[in-house]
Amino acid sequence: MKKSLVIIALALSIISCNKTAEVKEVKTAYIDTSKLMEEYTESKDIDAKYKSKTEEMGRELELEVNRFKADAADFQKKAPLNGQAWAQQNGAVLQQRQQKLQYAQEAIIQQMQQEMGVEKDTMVVAIKKFIKSYGKEKGYAYIYGTGEANTVLYAEDKYDITKEIIKLLNNKYKAEPKPTAKPEATKK
């Protein structure tokens, strides 16, 4: 009885050793996220849009700054002639104008950063959704990101799908209808 149990156990171990485990290949790739953001047309369009908006708003503010500089130069000339009381009173007014200009400049920068951030965040969410569906369609188990946030420290170039993703995203972006710009009411 003991011999038969030993023989059965030995036979089972031999049979289990003969079965080879199926090894499924895991398909992986990576995307250089920095390069993606640099070369994706929508990202470039958002950057250009806000650069243009900032410059336009900056020109308006620059006119005010130039008026302030002219008034400050005029003040410098008149202060010695009109006395200390006049200089203190008008100097305080100039200081208030200077602070208002600084606050306006900071507000413009903050507004542009906030608006751009919202658009970029929306774009990133759409990119992630696109990559997820791309990965499922192409049978990838993993798609890693490289770039500024080094989540992959090394990968062979043959696994880089950055160019393909940029091309597909740009084609998709070009095919989407663009919203027509509504003229903004001028603020004065």
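That was protein one. Protein two is written in the same sequence-then-structure order:
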Amino acid sequence: MIEMMRYYWRWIKILNIGLVLEGGGMRGAYTAGVLDFFLEKNLSFPYVIGVSAGANNGANFVAGQRGRSRRIYLEHSRHPEYMGLKNLIKEKSYFGMDFLFNVLADKLDPFDYKAFGESPTCFKVVVTERETGEAAYFQHRDFDPEFFVKNVLRASSSLPFISRPVEIKGKYYFDGGIADSIPVRKAIEDGYKYNIIILTRNKSYRKEPAKISFLADLVYRKYPGLIKSLKNRYLNYNKTLDFIAELEEKKQVFVFRPIKQLEVTRTERDRDKLKDLYEQGYMEAAEQYRNLLEWINDIRG
């Protein structure tokens, strides 16, 4: 079995298969399950790109920390500083950013900065520039590992209206999902024709216009580019889903998405639901594993 996995890993290296990770807040527990299965099978990729919760899961994956994402969703999310209205008062963010990217990463469940920084994987994170509303893509090799975690990952998780933007090199950034929710086009642009994509919505899902988009005109009136991106997000998201469907038909992507109906919200607190979703991700990855290897075999020709 070990020799077989080494064989398939050689395929992945030769084919330059990328890994694309959608965000989705607490729905990222599904992605955590899939990635823990990958780590269990010693699968790794030369290129990983993630957004928001997908970026955080991706960082743990690149660092090789199997189980850390699971603990964050199932154990640490119960901490009173993880999320809640008290954080809005304390640090103007619904999610406890200081807790997530400082206390948690440095003390409660230490992140392996060394392994992360030394990883040969090209890991990119999507953020949205406040002034233009356009996507920016930061690579972990271009930053000190600790700075990347505490600032780039934080920026990619900073939702408008309920979080402050994060300053990086003199510019301010919000959640990457505003401008590029599923960055498969960026992966292709970067030279990865074939990609594995992990989504956090069921196949039938399509995004609808945000009910509070009218607030963007008031809150972010100084940033028309950001307002435009916020209002058009649902359109761009649905177009990307259509694009992914086309790529699936061409066998250029292999998609993991929740098969069982989702019952978890972006700000889910129910531990049982989160546990079920994590296990769903793990089990569905295991069930589709042979199909994944066959897909790799097919594109290898």
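Strands lie at 18-21, 47-51, 122-129, 135-139, 166-168, 171-175, 195-198, 253-256. Keep this in mind for the problem set.
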